[in-house]
Amino acid sequence: MIIMGSVRYKKKRKKFKVTRDNKKKLTVIFFMVAVAFIALTVKVFYIEEVSGEQYEKQVLSQKSYDSASIAYRRGDITDSKGTILATSTDVYTLILDCRVMTSRDKYI
Predict the structure, then answer these.
(1) How many CB atoms lie within 10 A of CB 42?
(2) Distance from chain centroid for Cα 62
């Protein structure tokens, strides 16, 4: 609304009318996108089924388990009287691969 002096003028807005042609176009675009999504989903499942083991081996061969030690010690958290509330401790992580352990009798 624009006010000029004492006369008020209203701006007219264009209204978007949904015609039959626009409905048809929107419907066609919706189905095209739906078909593309379904096709991509089918392709992903096909790739997983056909060569899933190959990709799994490739990913597992790229994994490496390295251990790194932190050379510093963090400070203790204490209250106002000096009582230790929290402190740093050594933590060790052990990773076992059950397939490797059960693959040979000597590991069992």
Answers:
(1) 10
(2) 21
Residue linked to tokens 């015609």 = 19
d(CA 54, CA 48): 10
The answer to whether residue 47 scores a pLDDT higher than 80 is yes
Euclidean distance between CA atoms 66 and 60, whole angstroms: 14
Q: How many residues does the chain have?
A: 108
Q: Strands 7-9 and 2-4, how do they pair?
A: antiparallel
pTM passes above 0.85? no
pLDDT in tens, 65-86: 777 776 666 788 899 998 999 8
List residues bridging with 4 in a β-sheet.
7
